[in-house]
Amino acid sequence: MVDTMLFAQPARTDGQTDTFAHTVWRKLCHELQAAPAPLWAEHSAPQSLLARLLAEKLAEPIIPFASLHPLFCQILQQSPAIMAAAAQDLHAYATMDPAREGYVAPFLHLKGFQAVQAYRIAHVLWRNGQRLSALHLQSRVSEVMGIDIHPAAVLGHRLVLAPGYGLVIGETALVENDVVLMSDITLGGTGKQAGRRHPTLRRGVLVGPGTQILGAIEIGEGAKIGAGAVVVKPVSPFTAVAGNPARYVNSHTHWPVLTMDLSFPAIDYLL
């Protein structure tokens, strides 16, 4: 069961989610017909489109496109949940920016979207015991896109990295649905202890650029983290924090991810 989508979509059952994903991929394929890249027309199946995109981005002499593309195709064909999640991610990017028309631009050009889909493939490899392959993908995404997501982390749907450059998500991090992360953010650990040591971000959290969230702490749903904050203590749901160390600023009743408003009243800033 997929919960209510914050990004302009109603609650839906699994079957409806499949229909929604099919609609997104069908529209993308239609839009790509007008894109200045005729080779995309050779890959009409959504799995092949996404596999080609990621393989082109991440190929290198050690593991070339000819090796990556069939591997990615196989994983995407065997893991329909990835395609469903990718469709929801893609729609979230298109929904959040009213100036963006269609799905082609985020699909072809937004490294945040592409990095998350590569992570989803690496996550499958990690869970299947192919950990060196998963870590290789993590390394390539970090090198090419400047986004470092450990393949063991657990990420939800409709995750938006805007733009996400300089983002680090640690091994035991959990990020739920409908979260927005800006650039230069670390979801990091503290110490070398075993077990959970990275943050949990609940649904609908908005995290401003330059933020560090450290340790096995929970950021409650609907919370807003101001730019440049250093968060080392839990944050309650629907509250805003800012500063170093981060402190309570105010509470709210709306979802900050829907407005992307990272401003605070000047009098409330705590540095």
Description:
The protein is an alpha/beta fold. The protein is built from 8 helices and 15 strands. The strands form 3 sheets. Strands 3-6-9-12-14-15 form a 6-stranded mixed sheet. The protein has a 5-stranded parallel sheet with strand order 1-4-7-10-13. Strands 2-5-8-11 form a 4-stranded parallel sheet, with no helix packed on it. α1 packs across α4, α2 packs antiparallel against α3 and α6 runs antiparallel to α7. The chain is globular, with a radius of gyration of 18 Å. The termini are far apart. The relative contact order is 0.09. The model has no long low-confidence stretch (mean pLDDT 89).
Features:
271 residues; six-stranded mixed beta sheet; 8 helices; alpha/beta; five-stranded parallel beta sheet; 15 strands; single chain
